[in-house]
Structure formats: structure tokens, C-alpha cells
Amino acid sequence: MAAHEQKIEFYNGPAGGWGALRSVTRALLAQDIPVKGAKTLLSANQPDGFDCPGCAWPDRNHASTFEFCENGVKAVAAEATARRAGPALFAQHTVTELAARSDFWLEDQGRLTHPMVYDAASDRYRPIEWDAAFALIARHLNALPDPDQAIFYTSGRASNEAAFLYQLFVREYGTNNFPDCSNMCHEPSGSGMRPQFGVGKGTVTLDDFERTDAIFIFGQNPGTNHPRMLGELRAAHKRGARIVSFNPLRERGLERFADPQDKREMVTMGATPISTHYFQLRIGGDLAAVKGMMKQLLERQDAGESLLDAAFIAEHTTGFEALAADLRAESWDVLEQESGLDRAQLRAAGDVYAAADSAIVCWGMGITQHAHSVATIQMLGNLLLMRGNVGRPGAGPCPVRGHSNVQGDRTMGIWEKPPAALLDRLAEVYGFEPPRENGMDTVEAIAAMRDGQGKVFFALGGNFAAATPDTYETWKGLRRCDLTVHVATKLNRSHVVHGREALILPCLGRTEIDIQATGPQGVTVEDSMSMVHISTGINPPASPQLLSEPAIVARLAEATLGHRSRTPWRWLVEDYARIRDHIEAVFDDFKDFNRRVAVPGGFRLRNTASERVWATASKKAGFFTHAVPRDTPSHRARARFAGKGGAKGDTRVFTLLTTRSHDQYNTTIYGHDDRYRGVFGQRRVVFIHADDIRDIGLKNGDWVDIRTVWDDGQERRADRFKLVAYDIPRGNLAAYYPETNPLVPLSSVALNAGTPASKSIPVILVPHAVAGKESEGAEVDTTRTPYAVGA
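The structure corresponding to this sequence follows.
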């Protein structure tokens, strides 16, 4: 099939299988690295190799010859590509011309090779020497009247060593402005779990997946986002564990999986079922569903069964009686209406949980990107606590994070709300007084740039312009900056949405050999289960001009702080073991860091909740009571339109969630296919129930524009999406991001966490004015919209 042949074709195969192997081959061929790529993959997740940059799912002892997955291959191939985006590319194209290209085209140009500076006179990036680049940044930073006018973003791909140096430099500079990718994904997980359990991380390990009786999966699509997790789910199913999935969409990875490493399944074209129970609840209905499960559990307990862990509740928790009273008073009718599941389904899910001696609860961004995300996560915690399923084998909370070191970056101090203990230790070790005021998170940083209060934006990795909500406001803010700087491996959208002055700083990738003064270096990362291990590249650098992220941070710190800093920046990056010694001096959990990380597989950081030591205000785990959300933007929009005459009154209000395609990792587009959902050669589709298509007077394959109906009355829109009939609850829609990011206003965030509410967008659909006449490859009118015009 041609790369951009557009068609919708139902996919009836399993996740994985021969389709995954064909995809691996295509990914290597597409980047012109069939031999190099294969050799590189054999070193992924090995004791002497590099950590897969694809996601944060852990590896079992880093010892499996083929411990990688389809989307991990795509990530590795994209980084190890033979293509180069050097000075010749930038000489050929103005930035205006580059901005008109698709995100896929930009990253497909290959690896960045030279530091580049924007030249406004020619509207082109031109090469710049490293020293001159650092001097330019230092000049801007030191000219600011207030350090809080500088914003320092961090991607979860940054290593522990880079993140530690970065937070140290920025705090010596004088600000806690650390917006990061956690602010856009799992911030509610930490915000919910810290007051409940005393830690902001999951408590389980891979060994717990081998010992559990039941796994409950909420708002997660492991087949695309964490494919290696399918191996654990497959093994759990085979030994008889119950796997209960809650997801509005029917996701193939949650239905069945053919392991490419299983010869029998590959030869027989067989597959292993994954979910024993699959509940297609409404978008945002998870809290109501969990409350229904708990109500069922409590009703059975009240009827005389012994299902709750009374001893655990009495010894280790607070708040149970208030929760129990709320559950008894809750209406089954409300739970059914708001979850989208009937009473029998809710009771069935509760009964599965009651029958399990141990249970794990997993969740992803389908939970964390709602206004009520923190409340939902605490409800999941309540469910676990009712039966003592925290701090014992085979049980516990498991937030499944995306970026390969997003959890490690937070551990290293990348947080706009630093704890006082961290600041005290930095002051003690480094002899300066860190800023004590909280900094800006991602949404606050966008608003500050838009309002002219953020003057310098520095990004250590990522693709800020494409990943963030309210795309118009984000782009407006970036363009108002005096200087924007991006450390990156490949060209992306953020490099063409720039400040008055702009720099692109190319860095080494995880797969590449990092040579410093004392020889080859390895960096460390922390996965979703608090395992810390080392990662050492094996490929020659894409260009001799590349610097490592730790080296970039150290040289920038030296250029900016000069004699104000007592930190030996250059000396530290000569040998990364020295950086780890400094990490050990600041963080008690990293005692003997260099020795412990040298062991194959690394080591696990202490997790007090795993030990039933509760670092909360009460010194106990907490039950939290929350009402079922019945005042969401979608509820209010439907109420406003109900009973009104005219065109507006006849308009159906839908709730839209944003999602990835299978050829995508966050904002990186590897290709235009979504094999499991049957979408090929295109991305501007909206998944909708067939009956909803009929009710709005359209037909499958018609083109529509998506318009929002937020309370503020401001319409946000994204144009030209093809209707695709799909197995999704009525009244619900799904579409890919970043194309739908313009629909999410800065004001719509998770309460007490600030994460954009990208999974619950109230919208209406209107027929597209020139239905279907544009081609998928049409250029963007960047003067009018970023993604909303159908690029």
C-alpha cells in the first residue's frame, strides 16, 4: 500500500502478530537503516545497551534479546535514521515555507546536525557556533529584570543526569519556572496519590503482575501506547487472572494479542485474549463506574459477607466512615446515567474485584485529562484501600506513564512546586539560596508568554508548540518571546513557531555513543515502576557537532552564571559518575548511586506506600469522598441547547476525547496509518457511533468541522474531519491530536492539578463547506490557524 493511500478498512486481527512484524520492517526501511536498525534494536534494553526511548514501561531485568515492541522500533528507527536535517535544508527553505509543511514532513527530514540561529532578515535558520549560541542565551537571561520572566520546559526524554543539572542551573539562576510534560499528562496522578498514600508514584512492580488475581485498566490503550505491557497482560490472562478494561473505544490491544515471539501463535495465526471483561463507559464516566463498584462491594458487605479488609482499614486508614455513608446514599440511577453502564455491569465489575485476593489498578491519560481527574484517581485509590490492596504482593496502584523518563525527571527536581526539603538540601550542598516561590506550570507558562510576562522560553526536548492545548494562544505566546530555544534531535513544529530570536540546539539521542573527557558515558532513567537503570548508546553520533544534553546544560549554566556559581559545571560533565555523586548528595534515596546502577537491571527506589508507611499528614492512607461529576462543560452545554428552537437548538452536543494513532508517539507522527482502528493514509478523522451519524443527517465518510461550545462562549474550531463509524458510546467522539489541540482552552484543566482537559471537550459537528475537496497533504494556512484548517 502506498504511504498515503487513504482508506478506512475494518481490522479484525489481533494486536501484535504479523502486522507488527511488517510494521517493524517498514519502519526500518522508511529510515534507510535496514541493517543498522536491526543491529541497534538488538542492543535495546540490554545490560550494556540503551534504554528504549519509546515509553516508560519497565523491562524485566534488561536481559531479553528482543525486549522491544513495534512502537519502540518506530522510536528507535526515527532516531537512528540515515537522513539528515543540516544547514543545506535550512538554506533551501525559509521558516515560512517550513511552517507550511506537515508535522510528519518536518520530522521526516532526519536528524539535526548543527546548532542554528534564526535570521529575521532572510527568514531562515543559519549555522551558529556553540559558544556564540550559549552567549546569546546568557545575554538574554542576564538582561531580564526578573528571573521569573524566563521559562524552562522539560521533556520526559531527558535523562536523570541532564534533569538534575538543569534544575540546579535554573534554581541557581533564580526561578522555579519548570513547566514539563508531566503537567500535561500524569500531574493528577501525583496530585491525587500524594495526599492519599504519601507518594506520587505507583507502588507495583512487574513481579506483582505475576502474582495478582485481577487487573483493572482505566483510560489506557496499551496496544499503541505501551505495547510491551501486552506481554504482562497476556501472561496474566494465561494463568487465569481476570483483566477488566474500562474504555469508551474498543481498542484491539485490550481485546487480543498475538505475541511475535511466540512461534505457535505466529504459525497458527492465533492470539491470546486480553480482557475478560470490557466495559465501554461514557467519556469521563470512570468516577461513577468506580463508585458503582464500591457501592456493590459495600452492599454485599452490609448484607453479611466479609469482603472489606476491616483490620487494614482500622489500622492503616482514615475517612472510611464518611466514604461508606456517601456510597450508601448514592443513587444507582445517577451511577448508571453518568457512567454509561447499567447496574448489572457495575455490579459485575464490583464482583470481579470482590473475588480477587489481590488486584492492581492501572490508568493512563484517559483518566488524567479531565476536570475531575484528581477525584477519579482518589476513587481508584479508595477501591484499592477497601480490600487492603496497597502495600502487599500482587496489588496496588499503577499509573502508566508515557515518556521514558518523565517519572525520573520529577524525582530529580523538575517541578514548579519544589518541596522545601529539596531546596534546603540544594542550599546546603551548593551554597546558594534557591527561590522559594512556586513557579509556573505549562498552562500558566503559556498564559504568561501570551500576556508578555514570559520573555525567554528554553525547552530541553519535546515539541511544545504541538503538544500544548489552546494552540492559538500557545503560538501567540511563543511568538511574543524575545528568545525561544529548543534542544532537539529532529526538526519539529516548535522550531517554526519561534520568538523574535530563536535557536535550535541539536543533541545526542539515546541510541548514540556519548564521549566525554573520561570516555564513553551512560545516562540513567527511571521507569513507571521506580526502577533506575543505566542507558548507553551504541551508534556513532549523527553529526560531530552534536552535544549531549548534560553538556548543553552545563555549558549554558557556565555561560549564564559565570563566577556567581560554585558548581564545577565542566568538571561534572567530564564523567557522568560525578553527576551521579552529586545526585546522591542531594537525594537520600540515591545512596551508593554509581554502585547500585552498575548492577544489570539497576535498582528500585524506595516507595514508602509499598511498605505501608504512609507519608501523609495523618500518617495513614486516606479515603476521599467525591460526588459524581454532573456539572461538566458537556453537561452545561447540553442544558443550554436543550429545548431551544432554531438551528442551534437542533444541534447535538457531543463529548470529544483526543487520542493517538498507532503510527504516533505523542506529537511525533511516524506514519499516517492507524492499523488497529482501520484508518490508513490519513489523520483527520473523527470516530462516531453509526446511529449518531444518522441522527445528525449525515453519512459515514462525510466531512465535518468540529466546533466547541465552552461556557465562555468563545468558539474554537478544527475543520475538515472525515466521519468514521466506530464502536464508541453514543454522544461520544474521538479524534487524533495535535490536530484537535486547538479545541482545548487554557481555562479547561484538571482541578488541583492543572492538566489540560483534553479528554472531555464539548463540541458540535457541522458539515464541512467544501466537503472532501482538500487533500491530506494540503499546506497549512499558518496565518489563519495552526492545525485547524486541515493540514
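Residues 197 and 735 are 35 Å apart (CA to CA).
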